[in-house]
Amino acid sequence: MNTEIVKIDRNNIDKEKISYCAEVIKRGGLVCFPTETVYGLGASAFNAEAVNNVYKAKGRPADNPLIVHISNYEMLELVTDCEGEQRNVLNKLADKFWPGPLTMIAHRDDAVPANVSCGLDTVGIRFPSHPIAQALIEASGVPIAAPSANLSGKPSPTRASHVIEDMMGRVDIIIDGGNCDVGVESTVFDIAGEQMSVLRPGAVTLEQILTVVESADEPDWMKSHGDSDEKPRSPGLKYRHYAPKATVKIYDGEQNLRVKHILNEIEKAKMGGLNCGVLTTDENVRYYENAATVLSLGKESDSLQQASNLFHCLRSFDEMKVDFVFAEAVPSGGAGDAVMNRLYRAAGGNIIRV
User: Fold this and answer.
1) Considering Cα of 337, then 154, then 298, then 134, what sign does the dihedral take?
2) Strand 122-126 vs strand 67-69: parallel, antiparallel, or unpaired?
3) Interatomic CA distance for residues 53 and 171, integer angstroms
4) Whole-number Å distance between alpha carbons of 146 and 150
5) Residues 114, 59, 57, 73, CA torsion sign
6) Cβ burial, residue 350 (10 Å; 0-12/13-18/19+)
7) Between β-strands 187-190 and 197-200, what pairing exists: parallel, antiparallel or unpaired?
8) Which DSSP state fits 259?
9) Interacting residues of 209 by C-beta distance below 8 A, sequence separation 6+
10) At CA 117, angle to CA 341 and CA 224, rounded to 5?
11) What's the rounded Cα separation, in Å, for the pair 108 and 198?
């Protein structure tokens, strides 16, 4: 497949370019586009064949559901089939957090093909805030089903260069809309289960959601790692995700002990001829800069900055041919939980507490 790159300025959107890309969606093609979280790989949510092609382009397991993106509330009515308290909760959360990085899982309308949700009777829906995403969906006239625009298992793309690396020759169009702001995928909040739950942490936190709903929880995602026969209700739950080619190991615990253990591990790895990298924060770079390739997520106190930089750092380690990445755990709270969730998945659950 020949892939065309279309550059669009988010601050001065070219309507002709957007219309051109939207026509590809309308005829069943695949378009990669920026959102405020990460780049998405989009197809018409009403076209089952196009949705199948999304799975093929990514190499995505067929039991890993997609998220449907909308650009207005009329589209919401087309993709969901919920009423009563579920509808009341959906409306309240939408009023508070949409457009924005929150996906809600609600009951799916039959107009949405079953393969969007892997046969489940629910669907994840989101109203992105990125102006290019909104313009593309609106011009297409249909909701767009879109996972992240990367090869399955790799770090999610937050820059057009990441998408080009993974998706050239696999999709019709890649929209180059600059860097994404948030940098990690949306929070996924299930409002259709017996207990409302955050299934995947993101920039919208459980604490923020609890200002709108009376009761909700966040299951321990460290205990849900690994493959099972059960279909996941949300992306990012079942498989090893977000992983660079390098092996990733996370160290958590008291700072001095973390530094000691990581430096010891680097020394042993170097003896084996391995190229080592350390992922840390600005404050801790000095501990490792003479021992390994060091990348910083940003300030220890700025979880949004860490989230914005995470996937770019993981991809950069691959570009530098790093064999082993030793990552320091970041503080919890805010987007820090989302950063740790993605790191944990990238490491395949390999976390060392010292």
Assistant:
1) negative
2) parallel
3) 9
4) 11
5) positive
6) middle
7) antiparallel
8) H
9) 93, 187, 189, 198, 216
10) 30
11) 18
Identify the residue whose tokens are 């949405």: 112
23-32 burial, b if ≥16 CB within 10 A, otherwise e? ebbeeebbbb
Q: How far apart are CA 341 and CA 53, in angstroms?
A: 28
* Cβ-contact 104, 233 below 8 angstroms: no
Position 178: which residue type?
G
Residue 236: CB partners within 8 Å, gap ≥ 6? 185, 188, 200, 341, 345
The residue type at 103: T
Tokens of 324: 């082993």
| Residuewise pLDDT in 10s, the chain (354 residues) | 899 999 999 999 999 999 999 999 999 999 999 999 999 999 999 999 999 999 999 998 888 899 999 999 999 999 999 889 999 999 999 999 999 999 999 999 999 999 999 999 999 999 999 999 999 999 999 999 999 999 998 999 999 999 999 999 999 999 999 999 999 999 999 999 889 999 999 999 999 999 999 999 998 887 654 445 566 666 656 556 788 999 999 999 999 999 999 999 999 999 999 999 999 999 999 999 999 999 999 999 999 999 999 999 999 999 999 999 999 999 999 999 999 999 999 999 999 999
Residue with tokens 């503080």: 331
pTM: 0.93
* Residue 300 in tokens: 């220890």
Question: Can you tell me the distance from the alpha carbon of 8 to that of 319, in angstroms, rounded to the nearest whole number?
Answer: 26
Q: How far is CA 296 from the centre of its chain?
A: 20
Question: Which pair of structure tokens corresponds to residue 260?
Answer: 């000691």
The residue among 50, 106, 102 whose CA lies nearest residue 78 is: 106
Helices (H), the chain: 15-26, 48-58, 73-79, 84-97, 131-140, 160-167, 206-209, 255-271, 303-319, 336-346
Query: Token digits for 291?
Result: 């021992």
